[in-house]
Amino acid sequence: MRRLLITGAAGQLGRVMRKRLAPLADTIRLADLARLDPPERDEECMSCDLSDAAAVHEMVAGCDGIVHLGGVSVERPFDQILGGNIVGLYNLYEAARAHGQPRIVFASSNHTIGYYPQTERLGPDGPYRPDGLYGVSKCFGEALARLYFDKFGQETALVRIGSCTPEPTNYRMLSTWFSHDDFASMIEAIFRVSTLGCPVIWGSSANDAGWWDNSHLGWLGWKPKDNAEAHRTHIEALTPTPDPSDPTTRFQGGDFVNNPIFKE
Ligand code: NAI
Ligand code: 15L
Questions:
Q1: In Å, how far are 57, 81, 84, 191 from 29, measured between CA atoms?
Q2: Residues in contact with 85: Cβ distance below 8 Å, sequence separation at least 6, in sequence order
Q3: Are 219 and 190 in contact (CB under 8 A)?
Q4: Cα(42)–Cα(24) distance, rounded to whole angstroms?
């Protein structure tokens, strides 16, 4: 690839992927609303608010692939989610349509399905059960991506990320953890495969206690190598045993199910 765009590059995952994905392209274009560390060799930095259509067109022009990490990443009042995650997604897909349809990795979330019980195992095709407005915004993003695939052939990987952190640190993450290594190798596979389409992909490591079934992904040539189980003893020693009647333990979305509809 000549130029790979990473949006949300100043964020938690953006800062990790900035380093990990460098070998994928001659130039990595980093974009965010927040301040970015100065560009290093083979990098270029752009300030861009996803809700600004003209700025998004400029950001996407000349890119051969996009890792879309930008936007509001937790539950927030609707007016905050609207700009980055709803208007921003529309701007991104319109810009991609105008600039050669670069393949997109969309950082969707497990909060699209957060109201499924933790006792249920999920494949890629079940109905949405979002656990808040943030989850609804990711459902919108997935639906928009699918529209642009069906109408225009725009390819997107809809990666429903679980908990992408250096290590799993609580009981829920024994099921939801997605290691940085596994996310980086998944992104490499998504850009390597000749035909992608618009699949739902669970962003999860090979956790023994996992809830999500990625067995439909044989064609991707990707296998996660980490497993949260290796951290169980540590987690059990440090955190209290979860109460099974607590909603945050009953539902896959964890703490997010307790969020109100925030107003400010
Ligand atoms: P983060 O909140 O650390 O980073 C998001 C970045 O997007 C921030 O740097 C922020 O400045 C930028 N941003 C927000 N609104 C913007 C706007 N209107 N225009 C331009 N940039 C804007 O989030 P994190 O953890 O790095 O997550 C990255 C992506 O992955 C997010 O889309 C999040 O929803 C998704 N995700 C992350 C998970 C995780 O475990 N870290 C789990 C599930 C999904
Ligand atoms: C997400 O969607 C969030 O972006 C992240 O901060 C975590 O809360 C993650 O889900 C999770 O469910 O652990």
A1: 13, 24, 19, 16
A2: 71, 72, 134, 137, 138, 140, 141
A3: no
A4: 11
Q: Mean per-residue pLDDT for 70-98? A: 98
- Yes or no: say if 159 and 203 are a contact pair by the CB < 8 Å rule: yes
pLDDT (tens digit per residue) in 158-204: 999 999 999 999 999 999 999 999 999 999 999 999 999 999 999 99
Q: Are 244 and 250 in contact (CB under 8 A)?
A: yes
The response to whether residue 163 sits with its C-beta less than 6 Å from ligand 2 reads yes
Distant-in-sequence, close-in-space partners of 166: CB < 8 Å, separation ≥ 6: 180
CA of 41 to the centre of ligand 1 (A): 24
Ligand 2 atom closest to the CA of 114, numbered from 1: 12
Over range 18-46, report the average pLDDT: 98
Average pLDDT of the chain, as a whole number:
98
pLDDT of the residue at 5: 99
Asked if residue 233 has pLDDT above 90, the reply is yes
- Per DSSP bridges, beta strands 65-68 and 43-47 are unpaired
Residues in the chain, how many?
264
Torsion of CA 54, 48, 197, 111, to 10 degrees: -120
pTM of the model: 0.98
Contact 74 CB / ligand 2 (< 6 Å): yes
